[in-house]
Design brief:
The complex is a heterodimer of chains A (430) and B (210). By secondary structure, chain A is of the alpha+beta class. Helices cover 18% and strands 39% of the residues of chain A. The two termini of chain A are 18 Å apart. Chain B has two domains: 70 residues, no CATH class; 108 residues, no CATH class. Chain B contains five helices and ten strands, in the order ααβββββαββββαβα. Chain B has a five-stranded mixed sheet with strand order 2-3-9-8-5, covered by helices on one side. In chain B, strands 1-10-4 form a three-stranded antiparallel sheet. Chain B has a two-stranded antiparallel sheet with strand order 6-7. The chains are: A alpha+beta (430), B alpha+beta (210). At the A-B interface, strand 7 and helix 4 of A face helix 2 of B.
Chain lengths: 430, 210
């Protein structure tokens, strides 16, 4: 992590400019930093895993092996996921159980449990654990091969099982990659008897969809029960005005900054219609508070306690065959957009930087916050400073890329040219 | 070598065209199966008894059921696995043995012979002491074996069957037995077959869609 202030101060020092001249002010820095940040990300993503240097540069942005539960073969990708890296994987060998029954074993007085598991592909003696059976506990039992669709285990049969997403998994299981295919490939392999997806040859494809979830809670008098969603409505102050804040349960936020949110079917806590937030709005998500979604242009309404929230074009992964219950994915997230927050002393004009997550309680009179909010010894300010989400050793590269843009901004081509040369030198070290 | 190792060895030896043109596991399995079938046939031509090494027995612990086909008044067992086809009466179903007290061993018969036998006393005779002496037969018909001249004990007890199964029937962790010195032959035949497949056209422009 590189502090936002470090990059800004280093750039000023190298360009022989300072704040007082306002030659390159913080607002300009913030705008260019967002651009440089994405430029840097795209540079490394384009060379992803071409060498250990590139891999390490992107390490802070990599999420490995996250398990996504599939519903009829589909899951929403995590909201921050930008690019899937490598192929997704599934637990293998694994398979669904479609029936259990009693079976008589030659020279054995007790009836045993026969498990029907189409194309199980298991070797005689493979040790499996089964789940989703109501009557029998089959844990780490060696199988006795009957045929390619059936095996029996040394568990006495007691009664018919009710199956609930029943499946078996090999105790000594490994993982199998899920082939990522294009739409054209998928349409071709559906019709190919050799290549169509099976649990031994699964495929996946990416798509998008409108994701709708219940948010908040209300009491439903019809069913005499609470309807719960994935978070609660709250209040925040943006530019001194009270605005709605959606506090998602940890890990449930599926919005990113700049998304559009559609809110419908707003209700009060007792289920009466309350349309204060209904409509489509822009959302603000601050990287420092990833579980909160703010609505900067909507008026706060304390009567809305429940609604259906929709994110258009959320990314999905579809896995075939659709009986597969979960898939593991690794992905890159976009780096947080760097931002340097500050306030100014009204008398001395001295600028004070704010650290990430710094809170100014009872913001002192005689100061003005970045957005123009005047201090009054009462208002609280939360810093929205965001540091550069890159390793310390990337500082030179970031500074040279900043200086390049800064040279254009200052109409100083010498700075831009020297920065370009230095940047090329840094990149050659990767 | 297990089936999975054999597949991985072939895959590893194939030329990498690029990161997207991949050899599908099922295609590799098919290619290996064709070579293995050829190899089994060569073995059969040399001496059919050598196939015993490649038989997998089904119905050992859980007897395979003998079922009545009411419409034709005949008895049959659905085969639990595919078999390699050989040009004789048994084809890939090399033996059928009853789970009854006598461990009745059945004799192979062709389908045509079985049709003709229905009009004869074939298989039924009296032994020297005057007791009934019967022989039972089986014929391979598609994915079933059908029986001729079986008794109720045999039918109640069920059967076990020895089948020469193709490569696709093996589990990934099953050992594939290839006779000493023949690995290279199978491996080279498969690699040569797959190396002739040109890379697929992967540009997603629907040009070949009609």
């Amino acid at each position: 992590m590189i502090a936002a202030r470090t990059v800004y101060d280093t750039c000023l020092a190298l360009a022989k400019k300072d704040q007082r001249g306002r030659a390159f002010n913080i607002d300009e820095y913030n705008k260019i930093a967002a651009l440089v940040n994405m430029e840097l990300y795209n540079y490394y993503v384009g060379r992803y895993e071409s060498g250990i240097g590139v891999t390490e540069a992107l390490l802070m942005l990599k999420v490995r092996n996250e398990t996504l539960a599939l519903t009829t073969g589909q899951a929403w990708l995590p909201n921050l996921a930008d690019r899937i890296v490598g192929n997704p994987t599934i637990v293998h060998p694994w398979g669904p159980i479609t029936a259990t029954a009693s079976v008589d074993v030659v020279n054995n007085p007790d009836a045993k449990v026969k498990v029907t598991a189409p194309n199980h592909g298991l070797k005689d003696g493979a040790v499996v654990t089964c789940s989703g059976l109501s009557e029998h506990a089959i844990t780490s039992e060696p199988i006795h091969f009957i045929d390619k669709n059936n095996f029996w285990v040394d568990v006495d049969f007691s009664a018919d099982d009710t199956l609930t997403s029943a499946s078996w998994v090999l105790d000594d299981h490994s993982y199998k990659d899920v082939d990522m295919v294009t739409e054209e490939e998928l349409s071709a392999i559906w019709a190919d008897a050799n290549l169509r997806p099976t649990i031994h040859n699964p495929v996946a494809i990416l798509g998008t969809g409108n994701r709708t979830e219940n948010f908040g809670e209300y009491f439903n008098y019809g069913t005499n029960s609470f309807v719960h969603g994935i978070g609660d409505f709250g209040l925040t102050y943006i530019d001194g005005v009270s605005r709605p804040a959606l506090g998602f349960d940890s890990g449930y936020n599926f919005f990113v900054n700049g998304d559009r949110i559609t809110i419908a079917n707003g209700k009060t806590g007792v289920g009466a219609p309350s349309a204060g937030y209904n409509g489509t709005h822009e959302v603000l998500v601050r990287e420092s508070y990833p579980n909160y979604v703010y609505l900067p242009h909507v008026t706060y309404d304390n009567t809305v306690l429940f609604a259906e929230v929709t994110r258009a074009n959320a990314k999905t992964i579809a896995v075939y065959p659709t009986t597969i219950p979960a898939v593991n994915v690794s992905y890159l997230i976009k780096p947080a957009t760097p931002f340097l927050d500050y306030y100014v002393n009204d008398t001395t004009y001295v600028i004070t930087y704010l650290d990430k997550r710094q809170e100014l309680t009872n913001f002192a009179a005689g100061n003005t916050y970045r957005d123009g909010t005047a201090g009054d010894d009462a208002i609280d300010i939360d810093s929205i400073t965001e540091d550069w989400q890159w390793d310390e050793d990337m500082l030179p590269q970031i500074v040279y890329m900043m200086l390049q843009k800064m040279g254009i901004n200052l109409e100083n081509m010498t700075v831009a040219q020297i920065a370009t040369q230095l940047q090329a030198k840094e990149e050659s070290n990767v | 070598m297990t089936k999975a190792e054999m597949r991985a060895s072939v895959k590893g030896a194939l030329r990498k065209i690029d990161s997207t043109a991949k050899y599908h596991d099922r295609m590799i399995d098919r290619a290996i199966e064709h070579s293995m079938n050829q190899f089994m046939y060569d073995l059969y031509r040399k001496d059919p008894r050598d196939l015993d090494q490649y038989i997998r027995e089904y119905g050992g612990e859980v007897a395979l059921a003998v079922t009545e086909d009411v419409s034709t008044e005949s008895y049959y067992t659905d085969l639990p696995a595919a078999y390699v086809v050989f040009p004789d009466k048994q084809s890939g179903v090399r033996y059928v043995v009853g789970h009854d007290r006598d461990k009745t061993v059945l004799y192979p018969m062709s389908i045509t012979e079985m049709l003709l036998a229905d009009r004869t006393y074939l298989g039924s005779s009296l032994a020297e002491d005057g007791d009934p002496y019967t022989r039972s037969f089986y014929a391979v018909r598609g994915s079933r074996v059908v029986y001729y001249n079986t008794n109720s004990h045999f039918r109640r007890a069920g059967v076990r069957i020895g089948i020469v199964i193709p490569f696709s029937e093996y589990a990934d962790e099953d050992e594939i037995r290839i006779p000493f010195g023949q690995e290279d032959r199978t491996f080279i035949a498969v690699s040569q077959k797959l190396a002739q497949i040109p890379p697929a056209e992967l540009i997603d422009n629907n040009k070949d869609a009609q």
